[in-house]
């Protein structure tokens, strides 16, 4: 199953936050293929600089994520989303997730979560915040929810 990580999710893999353990367990689960874009690479590296985290730790995390190269068309499409509530970088993340045909977006950002489901119809996971600690059970529950079951 392909899941798109935004920076709020990947950041929990380099900084200790309440959901870091759950996110690490999720990221290490072989049932999931983690994908992101070059925007994630830039944002995660900047987060590390601001937090004093060695770039080698970021590289180790990024090595476990398939990175999607953003194209001019991705920037164009993201820029023309009709929803005025979509922030620019969120639009790029969502365009990447859509282009990669992911099953889920993993985000801890409230606005990104709303836009993912409302604008793109992409289900969202928040490991460690979801009521069920087992990612596979949570994925199954969300798939049923999305299918209207």
Question: Can you describe what's shown?
Answer:
The protein has 149 residues and is an alpha/beta fold. The protein has one domain: 5'-nuclease (Rossmann fold, 3-Layer(aba) Sandwich). The protein contains 8 helices and 5 strands, in the order βααβααβααβαβα. A 5-stranded parallel β-sheet has the order 3-2-1-4-5, sandwiched between helices. Helix 5 packs across helix 6. The protein is globular. The model has no long low-confidence stretch (mean pLDDT 89).
At the first level of CATH, what is the class?
Answer: Alpha Beta
Stretches where pLDDT is under 50 for at least 5 consecutive residues are none
Oligomer: single chain
Report how far apart the termini are: 20 Å
Number of strands: 5
Order of helical and strand elements = EHHEHHEHHEHEH
Number of domains: 1
Rounded average pLDDT? 89
Q: What fold name goes in the CATH topology slot?
A: Rossmann fold
Q: In percent, how helical is the residue content?
A: 40-55%
**Shape from CA axes?**
globular
> How many strands, what sense, and barrel or not for the largest sheet?
5 strands, parallel
CATH H-tier superfamily: 5'-nuclease
CATH architecture: 3-Layer(aba) Sandwich
**SS-based class:** alpha/beta
Strand order of the largest sheet: 3-2-1-4-5
Strand content: 5-15%
Number of helices: 8
Radius of gyration computed on alpha carbons: 15 Å
């Amino acid at each position: 199953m392909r899941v798109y990580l935004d920076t709020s999710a990947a950041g929990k893999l380099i900084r200790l936050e309440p959901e870091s353990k759950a996110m690490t367990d999720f990221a290490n689960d072989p049932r999931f293929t983690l994908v992101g874009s070059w925007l994630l690479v830039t944002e995660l590296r900047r987060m590390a600089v601001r937090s004093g985290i060695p770039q080698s730790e970021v590289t180790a995390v990024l090595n476990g994520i398939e990175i999607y190269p953003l194209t001019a068309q991705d920037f164009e499409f993201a820029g023309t989303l009709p929803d005025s509530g979509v922030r620019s970088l969120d639009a790029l993340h969502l365009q990447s997730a859509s282009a990669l045909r992911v099953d889920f977006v993993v985000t801890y950002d409230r606005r990104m979560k709303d836009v993912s489901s409302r604008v793109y119809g992409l289900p969202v996971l928040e490991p460690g915040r979801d009521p069920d600690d087992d990612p596979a059970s949570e994925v199954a529950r969300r798939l049923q929810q999305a299918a209207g079951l």
